[in-house]
């Protein structure tokens, strides 16, 4: 996880309200073998965040190593797998929730099931393995709205999720005389063509509605509106920032 001032900051306090214990595994954004001066600020933010996490009620942090120019994490996945097996074999827990989507965790999930552990898998829609989902006793696809809920209050306050309203763009345009349909050159990707309008200081995007039909999403920032739609509907929209 690369951290800068503009990257969502997780709030483990929210997790600690849901779970008895929280174990968080990550590695620094600064490479141990190829440190770059440009990464120094991100490294400092990461260290401060890990200290804060470790002092949160019921939370425990393991920091692995980051190696090479491509900043590959080392020891993180292995440590997570070993800890899950250790807690299971020592009878420290009867159920566990893994927040991940990497198929590399499949062997440990299979081993934990054989040991009698009840496993819940939580994953994000654009990054998961079908085999991992099938191996879990229970699974939940976390929406990007839920991801936003697990960030800290200051980030949520400055990154509002687009609001919703019923209806499609054509009907909205007919009812609002000052509506402007955005041209393709104004949009962050061809998938948004003829689906975005501007009116009275807001941008409106037509997305699929629940149970059919269409809904409109509204936001003052076009980039936020489109990037949120791409996160929520990855099979329909691809966000291509300039």
Question: Would you give an account of this structure?
Answer:
Helix content is 33%, strand content 24%. The protein has 242 residues and is α/β, with parallel strands linked by helices. A hairpin with a 5-residue loop joins strand 10 and strand 11. The protein starts with 11 loop residues before the first helix and ends in a 10-residue tail after the last helix. It has helices spanning 12-18, 40-54, 76-89, 106-114, 130-135, 144-149, 153-158, 169-175, 222-232, and strands spanning 22-27, 59-67, 72-74, 95-99, 118-124, 138-142, 163-166, 180-181, 196-199, 202-208, 214-219. The chain folds into 2 domains: 12-156, 3-Layer(aba) Sandwich (Rossmann fold), CATH 3.40.50; 160-232, no CATH class. The protein contains 9 helices and 11 strands. Strands 7-11-10-9-8 form a 5-stranded antiparallel sheet. A 3-stranded mixed sheet has the order 1-2-3, sandwiched between helices. Residues 1-8 have low confidence and may be disordered. It comes from Aeoliella straminimaris. It holds the Pfam family NYN. InterPro entries: NYN. One of its GO terms (molecular function) is RNA nuclease activity. This is NYN domain-containing protein.
Global shape = globular
How confident overall, as mean pLDDT?
A: 82
Counting DSSP H or I runs of 4 or more residues, the number of helices is: 9
Q: Biggest sheet, open or closed, and with what strands and sense?
A: 5 strands, antiparallel
Reading side by side through the largest sheet, how are the strands ordered? 7-11-10-9-8
C-alpha end-to-end distance: 23 Å
Question: What's the CATH topology label of the largest domain?
Answer: Rossmann fold
GO molecular function: RNA nuclease activity
Domain NYN: 70-140
Organism: Aeoliella straminimaris
Protein name: NYN domain-containing protein
């Amino acid at each position: 996880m690369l951290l800068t001032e503009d990257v969502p900051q997780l709030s483990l306090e929210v997790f600690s309200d849901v779970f008895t214990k929280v174990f968080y595994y990550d590695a620094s954004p600064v490479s141990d073998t190829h440190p770059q001066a440009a990464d120094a600020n991100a490294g400092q933010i990461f260290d401060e965040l890990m200290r804060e996490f470790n002092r949160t009620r019921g939370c425990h942090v393991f920091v692995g190593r980051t190696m090479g120019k491509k900043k590959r994490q080392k020891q993180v996945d292995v440590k997570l797998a070993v800890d899950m097996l250790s807690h299971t074999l020592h009878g420290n827990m009867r159920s566990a929730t893994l927040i991940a989507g990497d198929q590399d965790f499949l062997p440990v999930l299979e081993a934990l099931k054989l040991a009698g552990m009840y496993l819940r898998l939580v994953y994000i829609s654009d990054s998961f393995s079908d085999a991992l989902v099938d191996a879990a006793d229970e699974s939940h696809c976390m929406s990007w709205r839920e991801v936003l809920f697990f960030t800290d209050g200051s980030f949520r306050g400055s990154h509002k999720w687009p609001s919703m309203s019923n209806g499609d763009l054509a009907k909205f345009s007919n009812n609002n005389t000052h509506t402007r349909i955005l041209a393709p050159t104004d949009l962050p990707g061809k998938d948004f063509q003829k689906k975005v309008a501007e009116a009275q200081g807001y941008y409106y995007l037509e997305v699929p509605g629940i149970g059919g039909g269409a809904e409109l999403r509204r936001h003052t920032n076009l980039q936020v509106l489109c990037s949120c739609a791409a996160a929520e509907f990855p099979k329909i929209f691809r966000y291509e920032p300039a």
